[in-house]
Write a structure and sequence with these properties.
The protein contains 11 helices and 9 strands. The protein is of the alpha/beta class.
């Protein structure tokens, strides 16, 4: 869980990826943000409960114009959404507004989105009023309470139209989570190889991603472009080898299981037949409900 959180933060910490994420999800692809008009914003804010405490959001950047802050964007990564997620959003935004209270500079707005990386569906309250009603606050009192909405984007449930708007390495992740591949991005350059591969392994458990990053590292260090097509070709080749190796291991295990059953039943003639005759062996696999290589071809 912690590893996923860290790798998500690392990829989104790059200015081009952060800007692409906001442009795509918040502004429907309009290129309002870019690495040139954004800068890192603090991820730590403070509050007091008997004694001073601090809190950290995941990733944050300012939108600036001629040195003046216009907006602050906060991106929260979640593997499991919390019932009171809306309070977390209010807390982060409140921390930012609190810091603006006495600094004398122009006040800027804060926009917070939540990216959900889990495949689990969630029915958490999407606004403050819903959470309050769920916790027993009478409807008649809600009109006096400012409402706050929660915006959640499920990365494994984005439409093709939305995913096509991504121009950064985040598009590889979104495509893979929704399609199981990123073939449509074969001609796209991978800019943040390590961060992308680390996140892909954390999300999928597939170690091939980081193994391949090591193979491309020298080229990446020299400043040479790493195109997705090269990466995909090696990824597929590695997958085929892995599949062959697993097939060999499974085949040996299944044959051993079949021979053991035949020996236990005293069917010595069938033992030789199983070793020498592929068709007879396939029938025996079926007889004992043992998966055979043919079943997976």
């Amino acid at each position: 869980m912690a590893e996923k959180d860290i790798t998500e933060k690392i990829l989104l910490s790059y200015a081009d990826v952060f800007a692409d994420c906001i442009n795509t999800l918040v502004y429907d692809g309009k290129r309002y943000l870019n690495p040139g008009n954004t800068q890192p914003a603090p991820t730590e804010s403070f509050y007091k409960v008997k004694k001073p405490r601090n809190q950290f959001c995941d990733t944050s950047r300012y939108l600036t114009e001629e040195g003046t802050i216009l907006l602050q964007y906060i991106i929260e990564n979640e593997t499991e959404l919390e019932e009171r997620q809306i309070l977390r959003k209010i807390s982060y935004e409140g921390g930012s507004y609190r810091q603006q209270l006495g600094n004398g500079a122009p006040v800027y707005g804060v926009i917070t989105i939540v990216i959900a990386w889990t495949g689990k569906s969630s029915r958490i309250p999407q606004n403050l009023h819903t959470l309050l009603l769920k916790n027993g606050v009478p409807q008649k009192h809600l009109e006096m309470i400012d409402d706050t909405k929660l915006t959640v984007y499920h990365m494994n449930n984005l439409s093709p139209e939305t995913r096509n708007l991504f121009t950064s390495d985040l598009g590889f992740v979104a495509d893979y989570l929704n399609e199981g591949n990123f073939d449509s991005r074969r001609e796209q350059e991978i800019l943040h190889l390590d961060a992308l591969c680390d996140l892909m392994e954390a999300l999928t458990g597939d170690t091939r991603f980081t193994e391949l990053a090591n193979e491309f590292w020298t080229k990446h260090q020299k400043g040479d472009a790493v195109m997705a097509c090269e990466y995909l070709d090696l990824l597929e080749a590695r997958g085929e080898k892995l599949g062959e190796k697993r097939g060999e291991i499974n085949g040996e295990t299944n044959l051993s299981s079949l021979l053991e059953k035949l020996f236990d039943l005293g069917r010595s003639q069938d033992v030789e037949l199983a070793v020498r005759n592929p068709d007879a062996r396939a029938k025996m696999f079926k007889e004992f409900s043992i998966p055979s290589y043919r079943d997976h071809k």
